[in-house]
Amino acid sequence: MRTVVLALLLAAVAAAAAKPSVADARAFMDKAEAELLDLTNEAQRSGWIEETYITQDTETESAKAQERLIARTTELVDQARQFDGLKLPPELAREFLLMRLSLPLPAPHEAALRARATAVAASLDGSYGAGKYCPNGDTSKCIGIDELDVRMAKSRDPRELAELWAGWHKIGAPMRERYADLVKLSNQGARELGFADTGALWRAGYDMPADAFSADLERLWMQVEPLYRELHTYVRRKLIEKYGAHAKRADGMIPAHLLGNMWAQEWGNIYDIAAPAESYKTADIGETLQEKHVDAKGVVTYGEHFFQSLGFEALPATFWERSQLTKPRDRDVVCHASAWDVDNDKDVRLKVCIHVTTDDFTTVHHELGHNYYQMAYRTLPFLFRNGANDGFHEAIGDSIALSITPEYLKKVGLVDTIPPPEADIPLLLRTAMDKVAALPWMLVVDKWRWEVFGGEVKPEHYNDAWWRLREKYQGVAPPVDRSEADFDPGAKYHIPSNTPYVRYFLARIYQFQFYKAMCDASGYKGPLNRCSFYESKEAGAKLNAMLKMGASKPWPEAMRVMTGEDKADAGPMLEYFAPLLTWLKEQNKGQSEGWTVSENPQKSQ
Ligand code: X8Z
Ligand code: ZN
């Protein structure tokens, strides 16, 4: 009898020892977070050096640091399985979940394959950064994307635009094979983590089942698509008035090089072409800044000043010492704007190649939104030092920039007079050409990638699938014939840099929700499009309450703190543009709307 009791007792002790407790899970997570913080900082620092000084060496170092981070994260995710089935407090469970989702580039367990994945990723990133267009092959006249951006915005010569477009898109072709390799390797990594593919891993980051997320995107697109189609119809007509046959296609699509942006992404740069006749002349912020001799640092200071007006702190001194604000003359860098938090604490920085233009003025506000988010959540446990979801991170600065109204510009001395209410339509049109025009593009990029990761689109159809989606959603067509010898997705930063993109679509919707909430908090009454919450400490407090939550709660809770709602909703965006929609419908009366999809979307005519 005694031996039986003893045996039972020993068995119970053994079972208890084998079955980890909540305290074990907590201790495991604390240690994991400390390690991941170190490895992430190392990877960030190497990434910073690589993107601000592209050479074979910096690419290698950056790849190695990524490799160490990926290897350790993967190991920790594997070890964390010992806690499967254990009932954890919600915050701790969330840390485990976030750890599992933390790698945008999952890589295989096998060391050689993992090394190849990070090397290929770094080399694609470097290729984009070093990418140039050298007109007529003259290597003394090469221009990078920062300058091409300005040329695409300013030129009104359709032949030159087509040339710039085709010239830049040449950077894609040499990336194709490496990209296919990256897809294969990262998919293997995703499967080893328990996801169907890398796209499925990315889509798992939204606190809802994959199906619900897809349905949500569809719901949001349905809400805004009618507005996009009216805008498309109107702008197309204006382009045809300006460019004649260059802009006119029988199928109703717009040639992608005429919209003032390399990717036909945001159209505000060609506002002059679309402006209603005899309308109030809206001021071009870029030109005003240039007239006032504002330099890159000055542009950033406007953004910082706005955040300070809401009650946020000044940027740390190291921000000004360590940021890259203009393009260095003597080396290749990645000019695509980004905001960094190099030590996950106070070492925040911007990496930009500022040209004093309206685009870069808004971009700086966008980027500072990232830096202020990073500073707000920097004391949380490491895995919570992130946006409520990635769309939140992308929406903050933009929700601030919506407050750049004529009234605000007058307050800061950038315009002399406030336009009359009749100027609302021209102003709304200018904003819609940026904000609304970008919506379908922001769906296309990841719809393409999800099909690629999911295996529905094979490497030999990469370009065809790309144009099929651009045609279907954006209603744009390539200016020159394309084929599978091209790899046009490679000419957009987020593809070679492996940065998920649907976040920007979400951010377009969220930012109007946040903006409206901050307008309400500031006590503003009136049409949404005229609200600026500049200098409102109440709006700032509302924003800060959400920012400092970081990723500690599922995003609907962060949304509730800010807006009182727990859903993404295009309602505020539609409210903002409501007067414009009515006006566009009036303008488009009698016009045929929409476009027909073609057999071969890679043909230019
Ligand atoms: O990439 C960016 C930011 C950095 S997070 C400059 N954006 C997207 C793009 O440029 O394609 C902001 C809007 C969309
Ligand atoms: Zn951003």
Span from first to last CA?
A: 91 Å
- In the predicted model, the low-confidence regions spanning at least 5 consecutive residues are none
- Mean pLDDT across all amino acids: 96
Q: Please trace the helix and strand order, writing H or E for each element.
A: HHHHHHHHHHEHHHHEEHHHHHHEHHHH
If strands are numbered along the chain, what order do they take across the biggest sheet?
A: 1-4
Question: What is the C-alpha radius of gyration, as a whole number of Å?
Answer: 25 Å
Which percent range describes the beta-strand content? under 5%
Descriptive report:
Helices cover 57% and strands 2% of the residues. It is mainly α. It has a domain at 2-102. The strands form two sheets. Strands 1-4 form a two-stranded parallel sheet. Strands 2-3 form a two-stranded antiparallel ribbon. Helix 6 (145-154) runs antiparallel to helix 7, helix 18 crosses helix 24 and helix 19 (438-453) packs across helix 21 (502-521). It is globular. The mean pLDDT is 96. Bound molecules: L-captopril and zinc ion. Zinc ion (ZN) is lined by residues 366, 370, 394. L-captopril (X8Z) binds next to helix 15.
Summarize the structure.
The chain is mainly α. Helices cover 57% and strands 2% of the residues. It has helices spanning 2-18, 22-51, 56-79, 90-100, 111-130, 145-154, 158-169, 176-192, 198-203, 210-243, 271-274, 285-291, 296-309, 317-322, 358-376, 390-401, 406-411, 424-435, 438-453, 462-474, 502-521, 537-547, 555-563, 571-587, and strands at 254-255, 338-341, 348-351, 476-477.
